[in-house]
Amino acid sequence: MINRGDNLSIKTKTLLSALLFLTLSACAQNIESTEETIETCSQESQYVFGWQFIAERCDFLPRGGTSRGSKTYADHTPSKHWQALQSSDIHKHEKDRQAILSMSGYYRVSFDFIETMGFTQGYAPSRPYRSWGTEFVEVIENENNFISLQHIMVMYFTDNEGNVSEPMVMKHWRQDWHYEKPTEFIYMGNSLWQKHDLNKNDIAGTWAQSVFQVDDSPRYESHGQWHHNGNRSEWISKVTWRPLPRREGSVRNDYQVLEGVNKHIILPNGWVQEEENFKLVVDENGKPDAKTPYLAKELGIARYERIKDHDFSPGEQYWQKAAPYWQDVRAVWHELVDEHSSIEINKTVDGKFMFMPFFERAQQIVDGSDYDSAQERKNIKSALAPFISAQ
């Protein structure tokens, strides 16, 4: 069993962590491609919301993460931000800010996605998706009208004998919140993102949420208002286009866009992200397919539950050392978005993933490599060049 005070945990390789995630995705793809319906099920079907009369399908068990994590312990103590959010003495804008800041902290996360209906003849739902993680959410920028939250995964796995692995540390996604943001960088389908100006009246009182991939490339962006009603606070997005997430991109190629509404709901013990998505087929011009644009509707829920007594220190130490580099990566992306009206982003070129050189370089810096910010930004631009086309 691992000694969590051991230096080995500090030197956990984020590059290997990323490769592990890709391997798990590939495994999910293989499982999906070989599924078949049989007469007698060797395993009792789990309860799955929304499909009471499909229990006889033995291939309908949820796919996704099959690994087991170390035991976690719920933390029922509300955060200081949630407590501040309950005050009736603060202005609406400050309530919004406290709601966003309430998403920081230490969490176990569960992910559940299921198709609830189909729009094609002979439709059969794809298998539900279920996965998990343990991560902390760090406030990396906190200004009056701008807050940035970085997610860092720190996961421990257990084997059949109960042995606990070394920590897997991985820089995960990032969410930026910008008050009354005058532009949106919108996904247009076919790996293209485009800048759009917004009307002042349309963004009055709104917060834009911008979501970024593990390599800080843009994923999706939308705006909406925070609503506070007694002890319930939630943010609801406008209808938003998003590229396929890895959980879908690894098993599906029959649609290209998730069109959906995103909700963030703040709770005393954490927060919940709800998604209501439509699986949309678009043509080469990014227009919905003229004959059959929609394949299915999907509901998703991610529960972020506060935990205690989980050793997040390897991830915190990684972030402390790697943060200057990732700040430069963000700065280069900000420049690209500011200077161009549209950017086409290809995640792989010649079999190489765009995130890999950034994870490699970040790990070198964590391990003690010399660092020069000006030179790093030049190198970051060079590393991005094969993967992007900007106009």
Question: What series of H and E elements makes up the topology?
Answer: HHEEHHEEEEEEHEEEEHEEEHEEEHHE
Distance between the termini: 53 Å
Count of helical segments? Answer: 9
- The portion of residues assigned to helices is 25-40%
- Could you say which structural class the secondary elements and strand pairing correspond to? alpha+beta
Determine the strand fraction and express it as a percent band.
Answer: 35-45%
Uncertain segments are 1-12, 22-39
The biggest sheet, with number of strands, parallel, antiparallel or mixed sense and barrel status, is:
10 strands, antiparallel, barrel
Rg from Cα: 21 Å
Your description of this structure?
The protein is an alpha+beta fold. The chain has one domain (7-311). It has helices at 7-10, 14-33, 80-85, 92-101, 200-203, 246-249, 313-339, 356-366, 373-384; strands at residues 63-64, 73-74, 105-118, 129-143, 146-155, 168-179, 183-189, 192-197, 207-212, 218-229, 232-237, 240-242, 257-267, 270-280, 294-308, 342-345, 348-349, 352-353, 388-390. β17 (348-349) and β18 form a beta hairpin. α7 (313-339) crosses α8 (356-366) and α7 crosses α9 (373-384). The longest helix is centred in the C-terminal third of the chain and has 27 residues, at 313-339. The relative contact order is 0.15.
